[in-house]
Specification:
The structure holds two protein chains of two kinds.
Chain A: H1 4-9, H2 14-24, H3 30-39, H4 42-45, H5 50-53, E1 63-65, E2 72-77, E3 80-88, H6 90-95, H7 97-113, E4 118-128, H8 134-154, E5 158-165, E6 174-184, E7 199-204, H9 214-217, H10 238-253, E8 259-262, H11 267-279, E9 282-286, H12 299-304, E10 310-314, H13 320-329, E11 334-341, E12 345-350, E13 353-359, H14 360-365, H15 395-403, H16 412-415, E14 426-428, E15 435-438, E16 445-451, H17 454-459, H18 461-479, E17 482-491, H19 498-518, E18 522-528, E19 532-533, E20 536-537, E21 541-550, E22 567-571, H20 582-587, H21 600-615, E23 621-624, H22 629-639, E24 647-651, H23 657-662, E25 669-673, H24 678-687, E26 692-698, E27 702-707, E28 710-716, H25 717-731
Parallel strand pairs in A: 4-5, 9-12, 17-18, 24-27
Antiparallel strand pairs in A: 1-2, 2-3, 3-6, 4-6, 7-10, 7-11, 8-10, 9-11, 12-13, 14-15, 15-16, 16-21, 17-21, 19-20, 22-25, 22-26, 23-25, 24-26, 27-28
Helix pairs in contact in A: 7-8, 7-10, 8-10, 10-13, 18-19, 18-21
Chain B: E1 2-7, H1 14-24, E2 28-33, E3 44-47, H2 68-77, E4 81-85, H3 87-95, E5 101-103, E6 111-119, E7 135-142, E8 146-148, H4 151-159, E9 163-168, E10 187-191, E11 197-200, H5 218-231
Parallel strand pairs in B: 1-2, 1-3, 3-4, 4-11
Antiparallel strand pairs in B: 5-8, 6-7, 6-9, 9-10, 10-11
Classes of the chains: A alpha+beta, B alpha/beta.
């Protein structure tokens, strides 16, 4: 009955099919084959990435839960823990932008509250094709509305993130969603099916035919049949999820559940098998007891459906009634669909008939692991020779062109569609280096940032990985936070191609190296392969999510200049580095290496100096230098905040003016302080061996920059503000 | 003073409101479950922000049928102080306790941002601590906040001095640009004829702590507390 074409349709190779028959010592039936196809898909099994992800540092004294659960958990003191994770929803968001992005938010929220944590913030990392193409605008508008529609309704603030644009994302936009929650340390729940005979409860929305094969779809390239895949995308219901969130947290607070897992990718299949496998037990369910939205659904469809807003709970027999009454209060179905067994098998029955009977070991532990061939691309990524690059005729024009490019322009058009204030914790609003959330009833705050430069990673994947971690930590240092944990979303092309696998391997090693240097554990994340359409891959895009802690609420720093007359200092050194920069991309239309150099020891010294200066109340602003270099950084210090204070800058470095203005040399932070703090700061910087230069003063109506005595930029702040502020809205005007 | 905060299944500013009243204003504050029939002896009832029933139909359209709304209606008719914030305002419109209706924001997008509001009258339990013409900085966060009322209705609320807050510039001028959601006559908040029921789109609970950027929400809560303690 199972022939080659059916095997292929399920995304399995002949070898994988043979392995299945050997493991279960017979041919699987169609439903069983479907279960294997989901659980052995790249999305669920990590079969191509596992071997490299092993290099991540995952332990530490504050790690409560590392990779392998629904989310990672870090102890932050005060009896509290942060629970966080990032996930991709790339493929569905391209096919159906609004629902694809919305259900991405829904999924990551469930991962967090499944563990007993109340979600307190989400962030997102978005990549689209250029906005000059109408289709890209439609995708972006849909994605942003979808994130807003879901997050705003459920009442979890979307507090920040990043949005970049490049041709390579036109046919493969990226939607990575991060969520952070807070749990009491002694009230954390895991994916477990314990206690033989204990009932298995199905809670939430009814099961429909939506999302069948979602995980398999996310594990293949797109071809011309894109439109036909629309029904594979699920539809979100944030109101239902809100009920589920409140009810689950109440059930957990009252200790009425033993184990809980959401039904996300691979739905009922994934939750039943993983919960039982994690506990070394077995599980038996009756398909006829599953609440169904449509008539005539087959066991195959029910097991593979990815209908949203559903949870699986294992409870003690004597507490089931109590748990059910909590769900009833929130108007939710909570139905017993089976029980925990001692068989180490998944058994699915349809009344008296057994439709699935599979050993859990085969499904979960015996998926093949691949060490795929990895070799550098031929020819390698292009390299730019600075000798071939002419100077811009007009620096002011170049500066303004970069300022208003959609990737670097103001993102308020996006952020104001998100309720970023609900829950009244958002202390530093979106747009700063990192978003800051106070923790109520403590004197602490959390800082969160997402970061990843795909052009760096394209021209040098290892550097790209190292820089992504370094810059994310630098962002945290600029708001006054020490990093405590990392999650990552790795978006790559087809891993069956050796150059893609090489990019992946190199980037992962880079991230691992940097995390070890900063001594921060990676607690989980997500790998999204097959981001290719018609054979063209995206740039390798590693997005790092880093969470930090600020120990006192009066030590929160922000990037904008605070008053005229303050001294502006640049920490770090300026080098002649323009490879992979926004300047090369925007002004010279060149994308090539080398990326900026990175020395992790220097980087750590700069960050720790910044943190020290903040803790000693020495400085009034801090802002990280990144895309667009010093010019962009200065502009942002003038434009962010309400006062919009100008600056007068004198630069003395004897390097190319364009490299000085727009180069993206790493390990630099721009700070401002009152004149009477200068000496104290200088001595602190000297002790910590951090190079710095005093480059100017705040004040005036203009951004004025001189290089070696020559005036190169002198523009009113108000003019820069208008271009920066109204660039993005200009693409979406409705009149 | 006793503040009862109504919790609909999709309320999401219920905890924020409770937090502010309890820990910032040091008042007795508690939740009122929408399925109950008991206001627990509250002096003031607050309908908080959120998406009461998902608001897939019309914001607040289903919430008005919640069991507790019967008691809220009776409470207001007997002069009880009722404050509807954001979704709470939308529910009050659907309940018929306030006149008019909400349309989608003029730019057809959800809007979350700080706005300026001009106090139009201080002759209410909600603004007695403010000054006429005083400008407040309080955030909004809504999709349907574009207030509408027909001509005769507008004449009536103007004549009765029911308009409490208008969207304005930082200097207190009424401009098209500052009227971000397109509300008729820049209306951001209004009271009923008896002046004991207020609906406002901006969130005073989000502007009550210095750490979060503004304390202007104090005017609203301080006024209510003052009114109930003294004037009543």
């Amino acid at each position: 009955m199972i022939d080659d074409s059916i095997i292929k349709e399920h995304g399995l190779t002949q070898e994988e099919y043979k392995r299945i028959t050997a493991l279960i010592k017979r041919e699987p039936n169609l439903t069983e084959l479907g279960i294997f196809s989901l659980m052995w898909s790249e999305h669920c099994s990590y079969k191509s990435s596992k071997i490299h992800l092993k290099n991540y540092p995952t332990s530490g004294k504050n790690v409560i839960q590392g990779p392998g659960e629904n989310a990672g958990i870090i102890d932050i003191g005060n009896g509290l823990a942060v629970v966080f994770k990032i996930e991709s929803h790339n493929h569905p968001s391209f096919i159906e932008p609004y629902q694809g992005a919305a259900t991405g938010v829904g999924g990551i929220l469930r991962d967090i509250f499944t563990m007993g944590a109340r979600p307190i913030a989400t962030l997102n990392s978005l990549r689209f094709g250029p906005l000059s193409v109408p289709k890209n605008k439609t995708v972006m508008e849909g994605v942003v509305s979808g994130i807003a529609g879901y997050g705003n309704s459920i009442g979890v603030p979307t507090v920040g993130g990043e949005t970049y644009f490049d041709e390579c994302y036109s046919l493969n936009p990226l939607v990575n969603v991060f969520c952070l929650g807070i749990a009491k340390k002694d009230k954390i729940f895991y994916s477990r099916a314990e206690g033989i005979g204990n009932p298995v409860l199905y809670v939430g929305s009814k099961t429909g035919r939506d999302g069948i094969h979602g995980a398999t779809m996310a594990s293949a390239e797109f071809g011309e049949d894109l439109e036909q895949k629309r029904p594979n995308v699920q539809v979100g219901d944030p109101f239902k999820e809100k009920l589920l969130l409140e009810a689950c947290l109440e059930v957990m607070e009252k200790n009425l559940a033993l184990g809980i897992q959401d039904m996300g990718a691979a739905g009922l299949t994934c939750s039943t098998t993983e919960m039982a496998a994690n506990s070394g037990t077995g599980i038996e369910i009756d398909i006829n007891l599953i609440p169904q939205r449509e008539q005539g659904m087959t066991p195959y469809e029910i097991m593979l459906s990815e209908s949203q807003e559903r949870m699986l709970i294992v409870a003690q027999k004597e507490k089931v009634k109590q748990a059910q009454s909590v769900f009833a209060k929130w108007d939710l179905d909570a139905v017993i669909i089976g029980h925990v067994t001692d068989t180490q098998n998944l058994k699915v029955k349809s009344g008296d008939k057994t439709v699935v009977d599979l050993p859990l070991r085969a499904i979960i532990n015996q998926c093949p692991v691949y060490n795929r061939e990895a070799k550098p691309p031929a020819p390698p990524a292009p390299v730019i020779d600075l000798n071939d690059i002419s100077f811009p005729e007009n620096y002011e024009q170049a500066f303004l062109q970069i300022i208003k490019s959609p990737g670097l322009a103001d993102k308020q058009w996006i952020f104001r569609q998100y309720d970023h204030m609900v829950q009244t914790n958002t202390t530093v609003l979106p747009g700063a280096d990192a978003s800051v959330l106070r923790i109520k009833n403590t004197n602490k705050a959390l800082a969160v940032t997402l970061d990843g430069n795909s052009l760096y990673t394209y021209v040098n994947p290892r550097s790209g990985g190292i820089i992504a971690v370094s810059e994310a930590c630098r962002n945290l240092a600029c708001v006054g936070a020490k990093p405590v944990g990392v999650t990552n979303c790795l978006n790559f092309g087809n891993p069956e191609k050796s150059e893609i696998m090489w990019q992946f391997k190199e980037a992962v090693h880079g991230i691992a190296q940097a995390c070890k240097a900063f001594q921060i554990p990676v607690t989980g994340g997500n790998v999204s392969f097959y981001n290719e359409t018609e054979g063209i891959p995206i740039y390798p895009t590693a997005v790092l999510g880093v969470v930090g802690v600020i120990d006192a609420l009066d030590k929160i720093m922000t990037p904008e200049f605070k008053a005229p007359g303050d001294t502006i200092l640049l920490l770090g050194e300026n080098k002649e580095e323009l490879g992979a920069s926004e300047y090369m991309n925007q002004i010279h239309s060149k994308k090539g290496g080398p990326p900026p150099e990175i020395d992790l020891r220097k980087e750590k010294r700069v960050q720790s100096l910044c943190l020290k200066a903040i803790s000693k109340n020495m400085i009034k602003s801090a802002h990280d230098l990144s895309e667009g270099g010093l010019a962009q950084c200065l502009a942002e210090c003038c434009l962010l905040g309400k006062k919009r204070i100008g600056c007068r800058i004198n630069l003395e470095d004897k390097i190319r003016t364009d490299a000085l203005l727009f180069g993206e040399t790493q390990s630099r932070i721009l700070i401002s302080l009152e004149e009477d703090q200068e000496d104290a700061f200088k001595s602190l910087a000297g002790k910590r061996k951090v190079p710095y230069s005093i480059i100017g003063k705040t004040g005036g109506e203009n951004i004025l920059i001189k290089h070696l005595g020559e005036k190169i930029i002198n523009i009113p702040v108000q003019k820069v503000y208008s271009l920066w502020k109204y660039s993005l809205p200009g693409f979406f005007k409705i009149e | 003073m006793r503040f009862g905060i109504v919790v609909f299944p999709g309320s999401n500013c219920d905890y924020d409101t409770l937090h502010v009243l309890k820990y910032v204003f040091k008042q007795e504050a508690f939740f009122l479950w929408h399925k109950d029939h008991d206001l627990k002896n509250a002096d003031c009832v607050i309908l908080p922000g959120g998406f009461s029933y998902g608001d897939y139909l019309r914001s607040g359209a289903i919430a008005r049928f919640s069991p507790l709304m019967q008691e809220v209606k009776e409470f207001s008719l007997s002069g009880g102080i009722v404050l509807g914030i954001c979704n709470g305002f939308q529910v009050l419109l659907e309940l018929g306790l306030l006149p008019g209706a909400m349309l989608r924001n003029k730019n057809l997008k959800f809007l979350c941002q700080n706005v300026h509001l001009r106090i139009e009258t201080t002759d209410t339990p909600f603004t007695n601590k403010g000054k006429p013409g005083q400008v407040l900085n309080i955030p909004i966060a809504h999709f349907d906040g574009n207030y509408y009322i027909d001509g005769p209705g507008l004449d009536k609320i103007k004549k009765n001095n029911q308009i409490l807050l208008r969207y304005s510039s930082a200097e207190g001028h009424l401009t098209k640009e500052d009227n971000v959601n397109g509300s008729l006559d820049c209306i951001a908040g209004l009271v009923n004829e008896n002046r004991n029921v207020l609906g406002m789109m901006p969130h005073p609970e989000r502007a009550s702590e210095t750490l979060l950027g503004s304390r202007d929400g104090h005017i609203i809560f301080d006024s209510i507390i003052y009114y109930i303690k003294n004037d009543r």
